[in-house]
Structures are given as structure tokens and as C-alpha cells.
Design goal:
This is Outer membrane protein beta-barrel domain-containing protein. Keywords: Signal. It comes from Mucilaginibacter glaciei. It is a single chain. The chain is mainly beta and about 180 residues long. It has one domain (about 5-20, about 30-180): Beta Barrel (Porin). It has 1 helix and 11 strands. Strands 1, 2, 3, 4, 7, 8, 9, 10 and 11 form a 9-stranded antiparallel β-sheet that branches. Strands 5-6 form a two-stranded antiparallel sheet. β7 and β8 form a beta hairpin. The N and C termini lie far apart (about 40 Å).
Length: about 180
């Protein structure tokens, strides 16, 4: 990843963490369910940059408070990646190809609050590829940090999507609106 992209990712992370700092209320309650719907900006890293430019996602998340500082999460939704034109050499002929990539993530994880609003989290699960006939599944593992208030959740994560000998991953920025159930 070049220096400009790293700087941009750090800037987005810092901005996301300080959005809405005026709220001091605890964002998680013991034995309570919360539901949030998020919009994700997805920046491919590793081998995924060879075939995709960027991605967008919609991620509903259910959260259950185990304590006032720890929650279990269940996240699903869809990731859509916008493809690049890829030049394929076959003998003396060259062909343009586009590899569509749409993934349905199904992940479980946790959030551990280090302050009343700042958390670290991790998730693991499976991604079901639904384009080009589907059928391919990938393990998904992610870790990240975020800021959550009573209504808003802003987080940045790195998500690893290994498979077929390639190192694929994404840096995701999630902005979500949530409410108690």
C-alpha cells in the first residue's frame, strides 16, 4: 500500500473515532440486544487489488451485552466489489476480463470497550461468494477499533479473506445507526 493510501486510512480512522465525542453515555448495556445497520467503504489490499478497485457493503449487526464493557456480535449483509479490467495473455492473444466479486459475510465476534465509547473488536466467519454462479466460500477474520454512542457506531477494521494461495484483504470503514430492541 502506498504512502498516500496509508495516510488516507489513518486520517479516516482518526476522523471516525472523534465523530460525535459529545456523547458520554454508555453505549452497551448488560443483557440488552441492540440492532444496527451499517454502510461499509471497503479498500482492497493484497492480491485483491489486482482485480478490484474498491467495494461497498451493507452490514446489519445484532449485538448482545454480556457486561457493561463486553458484547457478542452477529454480522451479515453483502459486500460488492467494483472490478478492474484485467488483461489476460493466452498464447499470442490478449483478452480483457472482469472478475465480479460479491460476498455475503456471516460472522460472529465481540466488542470489548476500553472506555465508555471506544472499543476493540474481532469477528470470524464465512463469506459466501454469490457472483459468477456462486458456490465459493472463504473464511473471514477481522480485527478493528471503533467509537460507539447510543445511536452511532463508527469503526475501522482489517479483514482477511484468504483463499486459493492468495493473500486477499480489505480495510473497511463502517458507519452504522443502531437502536435497542
Amino acid at each position: 500500500m502506498n504512502t498516500q493510501k496509508k495516510f488516507f486510512a489513518i486520517l479516516l480512522t482518526a476522523s471516525a473515532l472523534f465523530v460525535g465525542l459529545q456523547s458520554n453515555a454508555q453505549s452497551i448495556e448488560k443483557s440488552k440486544l441492540r440492532f444496527g445497520i451499517g454502510i461499509d467503504g471497503l479498500l482492497p489490499v493484497g492480491s485483491l487489488t489486482n482485480t478490484t478497485n474498491f467495494g461497498l457493503g451493507i452490514t446489519p449487526r445484532l449485538q448482545y451485552g454480556i457486561s457493561d464493557r463486553f458484547a457478542l456480535t452477529f454480522t451479515s449483509g453483502i459486500y460488492h466489489f467494483f472490478p478492474k479490467d484485467v488483461l489476460i495473455q493466452y498464447g499470442s492473444q490478449s483478452y480483457k476480463a472482469r472478475y465480479d466479486l460479491d460476498v455475503i459475510p456471516v460472522k460472529v465476534g465481540f466488542k470489548a470497550f476500553v472506555t465508555s465509547n471506544i472499543y476493540v473488536g474481532a469477528e470470524g466467519g464465512i463469506g459466501f461468494q454469490v457472483d459468477n454462479g456462486g458456490g465459493d466460500t472463504k473464511f473471514l477474520g477481522s480485527g478493528g477499533i471503533g467509537y460507539a454512542s447510543k445511536k452511532w457506531d463508527v469503526g475501522v477494521r482489517y479483514e482477511n479473506i484468504p483463499g486459493n494461495g492468495y493473500r486477499n484483504g480489505i480495510i473497511g470503514l463502517r458507519l452504522a445507526y443502531g437502536f435497542g430492541l
